[in-house]
Each structure stands twice: as C-alpha cells, then as structure tokens.
Amino acid sequence: MTDATTEDLMIEIRDCNSISEATITLRKSALNIKYGANGVGKSTIARALQLRAQGDGSLDSLVPFKHRGVDGAPSPEVVGADTIKTVLVFDDDYVSRFVFQPDEVLKNSFEVFINTDEYKQGLVQIDSLFQALKDTFSQQEEFDAALTAFTALRDAFGVTKTGAIAKNSRGFKAIGMGGKMAHVPEPLQGYKQFLDSDDPATWITWQSKGKTFLDLSENCPFCSNSGVDKATAKQVSAVYESAAVKNLSALRQVVDQLGDYFEDSKRELLQGLLTSLGELSPEQSIFLTNLREQVQTFLGKLTDLRALSFHTLRDTDDVSALLLDLKIDLPLLDALNSEKSASVVRLINNKLDEIAGRIDELRAELGKQNRRVADLIRTNQDAVNEFLRSAGYRYTVKIEKTNDSYKMIVEHEDSAGHIESAGRHLSYGERNAFALVLFMHHVRKEKPDLVVLDDPVSSFDKTKKYAILHQLFHGKSSIREFTTLLLTHDIEPAIDIVLNPTSGQFAMMKPIAHFLHSRAGTVRESRIDKHHISTFSQICLTNIEASSDDAIKCIYLRRFYEAHGEFGDEYHILSSLLHVRDVAEVKGADGEFAPMTADRLAAGTEKVRQHIPALDYGKVVQELKDPAIVKAKFEATDVGYEKVQLFRLFLSDKTWIKGEDRAFQKFVNESYHIENEYLMQLNPREFDAVPEHVVRECEVRLAEAIK
After folding, report:
1. DSSP strand pairing (19-27 vs 87-90)
2. What's the rounded Cα separation, in Å, for the pair 509 and 498?
3. What are the φ and ψ backbone dihedral angles of 203, each rounded to 5 degrees?
4. CA 436 – CA 527 distance, rounded (Å)
5. InterPro entries attached here (predicted)?
6. Phi and psi (nearest 5°) for 147?
7. 3-state secondary structure 509-565
8. Which of 336, 355, 374 is at the close of a domain?
9. Which CATH number do you get for residue 22?
10. Could you tell me if 525 and 34 are in contact, meaning their C-beta atoms sit under 8 angstroms apart?
C-alpha cells in the first residue's frame, strides 16, 4: 500500500456492480496508474467515480444484480471523493458520443479550441463599442414589437422568381377574402355579427362542422329550432374558407399594430386592399410588391445592425464602408417614411455615427481578435496534426469558420474537405489514438477535478504506446497538471513511466503506480515501485531461490531456459519431469520420444543443479504422480500463477480428469504456459495477475477429482 500523504485521497467504493468493496488512493495533480487484469473492476471504478460526481442518484445504476429487488440490500456508495465534483472519462462511450461527429471532428470543437478566456474578453471589448446602438433597440420597446409585426407582414407575402407577389401566399389569399368579409352577401347577412366578431375563423370552422348534421333532421343542428334554411347554412363555408379568414384576421392585426410606422397614404392604400372585392389589379400588385421590398430592406438593415459583432465584421476589409451602408435612408423607403419611423431611425443613425467616430478603436480591437483567433487555430491545428504525422496517419484537422463560430473538421491527404465518415476508415487503435489527442484538449478546456483514462493504450501497437503517453503527459499542451487515473490491463505504461530511463520525462506528473487485485469482490491495490519490475530472467531466478518446493523451482527454471532460447538437455530434463515421465526423454527426428543417454542425462542434470542443487528427478516425478501430493502443493502456495502451473501437472494424467471441458483445458494450457511477451514484468509471486475465476475453477476440478 502507498504511504498516504496530504495530497492523497483514500477512496472506498462499495457495492457497485461486481465490486463489494474497493480501496484505492488518488494522488492529487498526479498520474495515478492502476494496473490489473481484465475483470478486476477497473471500468466499474471509473464509472462509480463519474456517477458519484454527477449526483442525482446516478450511482444507483451500479446496484449489483444480487442486490436488485432485495429489501434492505446495501446501496452503491463512494466514500472519500467529496472533493471530486467533475469527472471527464475517456472510454469507448466518449469516443462514440464526442468524436467524429457528422459535421465536426469533435463535438463542440469551438468551445474546446477557440472559446478561451482571452477570446471571450476580446468579444466583450468589441461588443462594448456597439452597446449604445443595441440599447437603442431594447429601450424602444414599442419599436421592438413593431419589428416582429414587420417580419410577420413580410412573411405573409411570398414572392415568385420574378419578384411578384405569389398567389399561393397566405397574404394574397387573405386579401382575396377581405372584400367578402367587408361586403357580406345578402343571403348571409344574418351571420354578419358572427363574421364581424374578433375571431370569425373559429366560428366558421364550428359552423362548417355543424352543417354535416343538417340532413339528419328538419331542425337546426345548432339550436334545434325547426324551419332552418339549409341552403343558406351550407353557403357560409362555401363563401368563407376558415384558413383564409384566420390569415386575414392576423394580417389586419399586424397592419393595425404597425399603424403610424407607415406613411399615411400608404397605410390607407394597404387598409383599402383588405376590404377590396375581386382580384388584385396590376397597380395593386405593384404596390404590394414595392411595399414588401421596402419592408424587407428595412428589416434587413435592422437585422444586420442588431447582429453587429466580431463575427459579422471579422472578414470585412473596409469597416467604415460597411457601417455607412447600414445607415437607413428613410426618404427612399417612402412607404415607411412617417414621423414615427423617422424618430427611431434618427436614433439608430446617430449611434452609427458615434461608432464611426471610434472607427480606429474598432479596427484595432477587430485586428487583435483576428490575430488571437489565428493563433488559436494555428496552435491547435499544429498540435493535433503534429501527432497525426508522427503516428503515420494520412489525416489532418482543420479549424474553419462558420457563420457565427468555428469548428474543427478532419480531412484526408487525398481528399480536401470534411470527411464525415473518417471514424469508419480508421482502425480501432487509430481511432482511439486520434480521439485521445482530442480528449486531451477537451480536458484542458473543461478543467475537471478528475481525469479518467479507462484502458486508453492497450489497443495500440508497441511503437505508439509510448508516443501516446508522451503526448498526453509531456509538454505545455498536455494534461500533466490534472489529477489523472489511468486504468489499464497493460503493464507497459507502468514500465515506461515508472522504470525506464525515459520515465524522467514524466517526473512533472508525479506518477504513482498500483497493482489491482480482486478476491471475492474485494479489490485492493499494491504499490508498484522500480524494484518491483524485473526482467523475465530475473523473476525466474528470484523465484527459484525463494521457493522451497522443487517442482515449483523446476517450473520457473524451465521458463528461464525458454526465455533464453536454451533448449539443450537441461531443458529436456525439466520438460520430461513436468510431463511426469519416469525417465528423461528427447524427441527424435521422427517425432518420437526416446530415453536420454546416460552421458546427456548427466550433463543436463549438472546444469540443472547449478540452480536446483538438490534436485532428485525420480523423487519429484513420483510426487507428481500422486494426486494428493499435487493437491497439497496446490494448496500450499498462495500464488495464482503457481496454482495454475501445478494444475497443468494434474491435467497431464488423464485418469484424474472427471468429465471433459476442452475450453477450460485449452485456456489453462495456452494462457499461462509460456509468457515471453514482455522483456520486463511484475513478479507473479508479489503481483498475482491470474484471474480469480481461473484459480477457483482449478480448485473445483481438484476437489472433484481427489476426494
């Protein structure tokens, strides 16, 4: 266990998924490596810390299956993590939710790469120059409401490609209904009060639905009185279409609301159109078209004025000319040239003149912000692309402008433009490497209390593992100053960061490594220091010396010879012994085994006894033939690796096997036979990485076979 310091958090995780209890330490502002086999509960630890920070009962989703629906069962709990309020986790879920989005390579890439505190401050400086102009809109509440009405008026009249008012637009149909509403046909005069009401469209809809019952009786379906004029009742919906009437009511309301913002004569002409009978004349159509164009121009300028900001000016070469173009020349918009409109336009134009008077200051602030953005784009693009180049990927990222923001896209060397499906073209390892670099920038933006890397490098080949670790934890743009929990079933990160000479490059991370071990749902950790990591050969020799059992000594010595490629007589003697052969044998050219000659046996035995001086071949073989003795040896050791190797000896005698489980036998024979993958590794006597279920299955098989 680690020596606790004031910078360490002691965290207990209880009753979460398969974990009954886990105790781990976290060193603040440091890299915490937790190494353990698959199934030890690493992902549950990450999830528990994340859900604990989220609150709102999120942790309850980790209730173990054995506790679900059980009254009084303990609830999931995380103790000692009160200071961890925010957690950012890199795992498969992060990659699927945030990376390789359809329109950008990283979700909210603007927030991650551009929207820094300096960028925000630059926006504030620029916006302050427009504040007086924008206040003009907010302080003129009546005019602000009128803009909504102007927008509704413009939108009511669609236009054709030639610019004429479209006959299928809501406004055109509403005007067509205006004359009929103003001049109710004689047969329908009895309904005039309803048609002149505040909501005639609703009444017409109601009346239209009721007429379907006219033929059921001679009585009125609305009042049940007799003598109803069915023909007249049916004529209402034939003359008045409810949707057009509704649009007419809305149009009248808009015109009334705008009122004095129109020039008097133009307002009278517009109101007259709302009561005219028949089709619009060519002159009326031209009037409506011109009116809509003036409203569109007026709204366009006002919209641009309200939107004045860094984004609308960032690409403008001549800011003075742009501001001048935004001034409203009201006399040229004769339909809107009323005193009420003029009073507001004067205020707006005066504010624009004030801004123009500070044009040098505005240009300077725009220049600063553009340079700031250019630096951010260059720095962030280069940081990601440098890694992609070093990793041999033919992809690059590019931060490009959008209408009011920026986004990062991914391109391929052979295809310019954003590749929406880049994630599908990358291998699993390549995709994770790419995503990890983006995640690193995400962390620097969000500044979480805890960063969790859930098995981040195990999918990479050996040449990339170190490069990724170096990218993440070395240099100014890394995440070295954050409290980081790296969960892995791969020993190489611990070797690279704790042992190797290059580990000095990670010193600023104050790295600390632990081995996670699980038994019966209880997870504990053991500190991994430099002296714990040894070469394959060192471990074998250390364990030969430490063990008191000659059979176990032979197991490690055979591994030692295998690691060194020494397959002489000494190796064949050990191999024969561990295959429980009465005499040492050698495989001939024909593949058949033959007894070893006396000279070769003597020479080989002499070499073996350099490491195991008192080895008695015959005695050990006789012991291994006795299932009770093998079982006793199995129970005498607490090392999972040694238990599995002894169980393999048990399997060598087929008469001991009750039943047959080929999958389990294959797993035992292959998974824990020869482990030459790493030059460096942990001693299995101190860091038992054999999964608990494997040892448990061996125990069950032995118990069944030897009773």
Report:
1. unpaired
2. 11
3. -65, -45
4. 27
5. CR006_AAA, P-loop_NTPase
6. -60, -35
7. HCCEEEEEEEECCEEEEEEECHHHEEEHHHHHHHHHHHCCCHHHHHHHHHHHHHHHC
8. 355
9. 3.40.50.300
10. yes
Q: Are 524 and 573 in the same domain? A: no
* Pairwise CA distance, residues 530 & 509, whole Å: 16
94 and 27 in a common domain:
yes
Q: Are residues 537 and 524 in the same domain?
A: no
123 domain-assigned = no
- Number of domains present in the structure of the chain: 3
Contact 400, 409 (CB under 8 A): yes
> Can you tell me whether residue 324 is helix, strand or coil?
helix
Domain membership of residue 389 (yes or no) is no
Query: Is residue 149 domain-shared with residue 59, that is, in the same domain?
Result: no
Question: Among residues 482, 485, 623, which one has the least CA distance to residue 551?
Answer: 623
d(CA 449, CA 86): 5
Strand partners of residue 79: 12
Whether residue 109 lies inside any domain: the answer is no
Per the domain annotation, does 380 fall within a domain?
Answer: no
Which has the closest alpha carbon to 15: 65, 80, 50? 65
**Which of 528, 554, 572 is the endpoint of a domain?**
528
Residue type, 703: A
Domain range for 551 is 533-705
Radius of gyration for the alpha carbons in the chain, expressed in angstroms and rounded: 41
In the three-class reduction of DSSP (H, G, I as helix; E, B as strand; rest coil), residue 378 is classed as: helix
537 with 514, same domain: the answer is no
pLDDT tens column, 69-127: 899 999 999 999 999 999 999 998 898 888 888 888 888 899 999 999 999 999 999 99
Tell if the pTM clears 0.90, that is, is over it: no
First to last CA, the chain: 39
Q: What letter does residue 140 receive in the DSSP assignment?
A: -
The token pair at 657 is 């096997």
Q: For residue 205, what pLDDT is reported?
A: 81
72: left (phi over 0), alpha (psi -120 to 50) or beta: left
Higher local confidence (pLDDT), 539 or 198: 539
* 578 shares a domain with 487: no
In DSSP terms, 594 is beta-bridged to 586
Count the alpha carbons within 13 Å of 429 in the hemisphere toward its beta carbon. 13
* Alpha-carbon span 644 to 674, nearest angstrom: 12
Tell me which of 80-94, 319-333, 406-420 is least confident.
406-420
Q: How far apart are CA 320 and CA 357, in angstroms?
A: 10
Pairing relationship of beta strands 680-682 and 533-535 according to DSSP bridges = antiparallel
